[in-house]
Amino acid sequence: MTLWYIGVLALVLVLFSFGVSVLLARKLYTDLDNNLKTTVDATTVSILREMRKGRSARDAASDALDEHIGPRQAAAFFDANGSLVAENTALNGIHAPLPTFESPAADQIRLYSTSERNESEQRRVIVKRATAPPAQTYAIVVSQPLDEVTNGLRTIRLILLFSILGALVLAGLGGWFLARRSLAPVVQMTEQARRMSADNLEQRLPISNPHDELGRLAATFNELFGRLDESLSQQRRFMADASHELRTPLSVMRTATGVTLEQEQRSDSEYRDALKVIDQQVRRLTRIVADMFTLARADAGRRALHRNDFYLDELVWECVRAAEFLGSRRGVTIRLGNLPEIPYRGDEGLLRQLILNLLDNAIKHTPSEGEVYVGLERHDSEHRIIVSDTGRGIPPEAQPHIFERFYRVDKSRSRTEASDLGAGAGLGLSIARWIAETHHGRLELRSSDQTGSVFVASLPASEPRQRAAF
Ligand code: ADP
What we know:
Strand content: 15-25%
Order of helices and strands: HHEEEEEHHHEHEEHEEHHEE
Shape: rod-shaped
Strand order of the largest sheet: 2-1-5-4-3
Distance between the termini: 45 Å
Structural class: alpha+beta
Number of strands: 12
Helix content: 40-55%
Bound molecules: adenosine-5'-diphosphate
Largest sheet: 5 strands, antiparallel
């Protein structure tokens, strides 16, 4: 950055100085030429005037040269043959010879520079041809040293050169300092980012100034790390909880087989009992694995919605029929509310699972003689499936957590309770909520106390059709 900065500045300064020096040289040379023209014109006028008065060319020229020629100038007056008539040498004895090339036409001037090798000895020369009556022509030569101009230009160029060098050094130091200062947060961020890994994702990048671009970049990265950290911890919790849940049925089965195989011979009924236990646990395992699979695919965004057209009221009715068996076994009555006809487009399989999960929970947590109510409501913008029970309710402190994965209110109780519908691994409600949300709806616990709980699943009336997969 600093090198680029210096490079661009150097280019600009060099171009600028070049321009200044060219313009200045032109101006100084023009001034010098104008000065010579004025001198030679004044001298010529003076000589011709005197000659017209009858004075000899030599006298007139001597006087005019004395009067008009400056101390650093050399001048000479030649007749038509090129013979010197009068001259005025410069202070250092320099003459003004008639140039070897052809003189200019009458009353014309010619300007040229001598070409001495030593620049300080070069001179600017003007030659003028003057005509005097009756038909005499004379040549006047005036020369002036160029050293004032060349020295002036050299000084200016030196000043410009040193100014450029000084400006570049200053700009380089300033640019380097600024670049270091402004990139210091990037260096810090890089070092911090290098130290970070999956094990310490709770660390964050330093934010030097939250209002500038780098600060906002760091804040954005920090938000990203936050989300990654959260999702990584979620994955870890999921893994830990999942292995914990899978261990229980496996150890129950191991105990059952171990105890049964301890003795050489067992009665048929004992084998049968053992197989029953194993069957129950295998069902439970299957259920947990299926639930985990559903959630894992949902997380990975790979569970496509299989939408079809069906009637919500029929689906609710089917689910109630399926749950009635479980209800009657537990002495729980299932009361079906009014079912308005609602054609719907969605994933019927997933919505069935949602309703069954709610029903399963309601029946499981309702004591015998209790009642589970299932209702379906049609509203303008949404349809509501309501499942309420007269169970013992969910303690207020547990209510915010029931939709979390693997969360159970009473862990020891529900794990031993096997159910035909839910496995009791604490995944039922999180799957149900995911199903509602993936249909752009909601699942909420409307109320829960000692008299029972009310769950409401709301599905949008016109399900958006553009998203076939999620
Ligand atoms: P599980 O599959 O173990 O039932 P859920 O995710 O479905 O897990 O439910 C989480 C917890 O919420 C359960 O452990 C249970 O204690 C509580 N719960 C869910 N529904 C009800 C209900 N209708 N009445 C009382 N408690 C409930």
